[in-house]
Amino acid sequence: MTAAIQDFQGKFPKQLWPLFFSEMWERFCFYGMRGMLVIFMVDVLLLDTEKANLQYGATQAFVYAFTFIGGLFADKILGFRKSLFWGGLLMITGSVILAIDPKSFFFLGISFTIIGTGFFKPNITTIVGMLYKEGDTRRDAGFSAFYAGINLGALLGGYLCISVGNGSLFSEYVPTHLRWNVAFSFAAVVMIISLLTFINTQKKLGTIGMSPLLHLTVSKRRLVEVSVFLGSLVTIPILMTLVSVPEYTDIFMEVIGPAALLYLFYEMRNFSLVENKKLIAALIFILFSIVFWGFFEQSGGSLSLYAAENLHNTFFGLTLDPNGVNNSANSLFVILFATLVGLFWVWLSTRKLEPSTTSKFGFGFLFLAGGFLIFFLGKNFASESGLTSLELFTLGWLVITFGELCLSPIGMSAVTKLAPEKIQGVMMGMWFLASAYGQYMAGILGAGIAKSAKNMSNFEKLQVYTAEYKLLALYALLAGILLLLLSPYIKRLTGSVK
What we know:
Helix content: over 70%
Shape: globular
Order of helices and strands: HHHHHHHHHHEEHHHHH
Distance between the termini: 25 Å
Oligomer: single chain
CATH class: Mainly Alpha
Largest sheet: 2 strands, antiparallel
Number of domains: 1
CATH superfamily: MFS general substrate transporter like domains
């Protein structure tokens, strides 16, 4: 049955599209919440901007760190389907808790969604990778299309949730004291849609994503699975403590990364030299992605505060919520260009002109540098009140988006191609664990920026923020150049993988 699925005709397998929509709604939930975190913590929980940035980084770091754990349990015990289903249930629970009372139950609801995302996110991505045979050149195009689904959800959730929460959208229909409740309730509704979509999709997946323990008796398998479910619930109060105190995040991040690397090295004993070279190449991509996401994810931290305080609310005469634009512009551009970029890679491949994965990563950093340089140039268009151009800010996100399209879907695709099937879930989890370190790094960077701008006028804050973005542009440029120089050497590690 799996072979029949992988022998599809055309550019995309038919199973890709329902997975596309399931992931779209899950990302609506995730990015809707992500876009609200810093503003909610400053405006409702009354945290100062420095602590809000650290708290944001801690929360997001745990989200992505748990994708490694979710991938591990999927590989070894639950299979990708049950992991995804369980994750969806936990995310729905967390969203409902936040919709009821986000102020009182903030860390409880967030903890449910963190663990739920850990079980959901890496495993739906792995299922997409399993729709393709090894060496299928259409895989990058498929992941680019799938990535468009991710960003359609991010676009809708990123703009809608924060705009309702801060009162810039539907304020005449939603009472002031219920704005944040309604904003979080959107996440609950769309996660229900996401889970129902996946349930309907399972019958089209054949044996893809089934439990790796089918050789055990039903009673033994259920005992192990229930243990995982109960264990994840027992983790909730522990995670609440860790998330609510950023200092605990430091300890966690100092442990989880080295532990993941040691586990990978342990697993590498079971593979050939050729396979291990591919794993080393995948690890290089994963490590560079940490830096990329550390810069990129300023979107949920320092750029959220920058958008709220230093951007005009008009875009070519149209009134828009600057934070809504910050949360959704990137997603809109991905939707517009992701499939085209993916097909462009296919077009280059048929002419033997496609750049290597390492070169694509390098180009991603160069675009990232260009985007932050544009953010820096915003200082030249500032008014005396410290407000600058929303149009220029949006242009910066357009440039960064091309960087993301050169790195993120390509990286996900590369990991599924380079990792042996037995540890694909673990390697995809490590890809998202790198995002955890990127988020952690983003929180630290954002907190540093907020601290530097503390107690300043709006105009002075603008100068501080843009100066820091200039430095990020420089570091991204250096990383991009380094990757391009390393490209021939990394290509030798990847062997026959294209």
